[in-house]
Amino acid sequence: MEKSMAVNSLQPGTWVDLYADYLYNYAMARVNDSEVAKDLVQETFFAGLKSAVNYKGDASERTWLIAILKRKVIDYYRKINSIKGQAEVRMQYNPNSDSEGDWLEEQVADPYSTIETNRLENEELGLAIQECISKLPKKQSRVFTMKTIQGIGTEEICNELGINPSNLWVMIHRARTALMGCLNENWFK
Amino acid sequence: MISCEEAAIICNKAQYSEASLGDKLKLRLHTLICKACKIYVKKNTRLSTLCRKAPLHSLTETDKDAIRQRLDKFQG
Lengths: 189, 76
Fold this sequence. Notes:
Largest sheet of chain A: none
Distance between the termini of chain A: 49 Å
Shape of chain A: globular
Largest sheet of chain B: none
Radius of gyration of chain B: 19 Å
Number of domains of chain A: 2
CATH topology of the largest domain in chain A: Rna Polymerase Sigma Factor, Chain: A
CATH superfamily of the largest domain in chain A: RNA polymerase sigma factor, region 2, helix turn helix motif
CATH architecture of the largest domain in chain A: Orthogonal Bundle
Number of strands of chain B: 0
Shape of chain B: elongated
Distance between the termini of chain B: 59 Å
Oligomer: heterodimer
Strand content of chain B: under 5%
Helix content of chain B: over 70%
Structural class of chain B: mainly alpha
Order of helices and strands of chain A: HHHHHHHHH
Structural class of chain A: mainly alpha
Strand content of chain A: under 5%
Number of strands of chain A: 0
Number of helices of chain A: 9
Helix content of chain A: 55-70%
């Protein structure tokens, strides 16, 4: 009884529309290879279907799928490491330098560097934007994604979706207005 | 003078560099007297900056269709 209810609360039919791009962004940040990322997203959906009975409904569908994807990413790195043999860690003392900075402690990255924080912040921003896009009506999210993320021209989008340019701009207008409302105020400071 | 709806459409076109010079001028004049649209332009421009800054990726519709089909087949 409980199990069948849990299955009912998952809606695999909507997964691709709602979560594919979100999961894809998450995967791209970790594997940085579009083909691998695409495969990982697909495997995540399959694993989700297989273990749907274990879904307890205490996390959102998206959080649950991300948890599966995280494991898939780990599996992926385990696999490529075992193919290569073993992960190697090599210490490299700088042979060209006779300065006093030879100790590893003196060669670690600048702890005050903002590059890493920026990278994390931008990834967080990317996921926040994707989450908001997934809340848009399907057609709006499609037009917005094609125009903004894929950079496809107005005419081409109109041809593909069978709409005219004024339809397109109205949809873009609605999508952008909704996104401005959906994205946390912090991003607009 | 253009309406706020027209101003918004021009502002959106401008985010994709598809507004004509004349349109942009009209928008500029409009925002001189319309505070609401001035705020809208500012927020919309900020949204464009955010979208550029974030590493956004998306699967193509073809990719998504392929995944949908495989999932359907899997479910039987």
